[in-house]
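Q: Can I borrow your eye for a moment on a structure tokenisation matter? Would you mind producing a protein record, from residues through to fold? Write it directly below this note and I will take it from there.
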Amino acid sequence: MAPNPLFAPIAKHRVTEATPIRLYDDLDVERCAALHNTLMLYGWVCSGRKIPTMKKQSWWSRHGSQPLEAILRPSLIRFLSKIFDVQDHIMFYHLTGLARPTQMFQLGDVLEDEDNSPAKAEKYRFVVLYAANRALVSHPAGLVYDQQTHRAILMPTYHHIFDLYNADLPWQNLEVILSAYVDMIEAEKAIAVPLDYHPDAQHAVAGNNAIMTARPSTKPWVLQPYTLSDLKNCLDIWRRLIKAIEKRAGTERDEEANVAPLCTRSALDVAGIPKGFAYDLLLHAHSSEIWFVAPGIRLPKVEEFIHQPFRQVLEHYPAETAEMKMPFLFMRCPGTVSAKEAKFRYPFSTVESVPCGLYLDAFPNAQNPFEDACRFVLPIRLGSNSYARTSDFRPIRRSHSDLYQVDINPFVMRHGPKIVGVLENWLENVENGHWDVNAKGVEGGIGVWRKADSREDWWRYQGGVRHLYL
């Protein structure tokens, strides 16, 4: 996708490898203000409105007062004085916009009431800078800003209050978060549609089979369940993984060979697999003569695709699963656990026994779609040795399915890790020789995964960092 001309003026402000964060202990006011205002303008223009019709009143001119001056840091006041606070316009999909003063300081009251702050702590050290969208969560909180460290994190709801005094939380510079939203737009993960777009209509990006319903409560913003780039990146890593294993197994094929896909279109249709990321992945990913692509994890058979463990849930819970796609079992390994032990969401958690393996877990909730998200379910529990970690380096506590997961997402509402990150980790373990390969593929069996809970090797089982959050 060609860069959007609206983003050209903020090229120097976006956080990239070429323009990293500036190392000083304060809010980068100019940079963050430029990013915020451009996001507001982009959504406004894409919604079908003209720039001159936007009332570019700053937050501080609307809400500023002497009592607020006594609470807010000077750099935060400067930021609030430079940024547009546009009424009745949603800033980004997950955030309705800048918090009103009552919303901004509610967090301090909640922390005080729940005794979640140390003695003599500054009551309003943490403020909600941007409010979460009420249509996506109940009791919304939002993007929390730490006035002491000048960093931010998304805490979507007051139903799950983070330990904000914990320095191990994945706090981010505000400009990093705002830049990530711009990245999501340019990757077509987040798109803005005209306000007159019918709320019951469906929107599809040209060249992409990903479909997303446009909701009035998030307009002009909608999220694509996946993008064409997501699919291409996953297929590329899959091809490289299979090729690396075949090379070491001595079964490498000619690049020009006509290779069958993992599953045919007719088999997918018989299985009742709806169009989407799983459908496209199976239809385009190459099959192989090898059996195992990771220790104990084998390539699926067509008949196994047809017998999906959660298929009956859609029939038994039609209202609860409306707009959802069931978790899809992609690759199997020996053993079963309960769906509740595997931490699948309700009503999928009602299934008493499900096969272990790698699942595409598309919809943690229907409003926050990431169809390329996955869940890796093992028949063994990790964490008893206290070395196993999630992909954001938080301890795993005796879990069948927390390996590769992200505990807290500082940018957007929670979703599972992208499958491309897991496959990338498997490719690394094959290429660096940590996993041995024989004629059937990666050898060693399920017991190899216990190394993810060992002092020597836990770090080898981390999903690709750049695929963690978005």
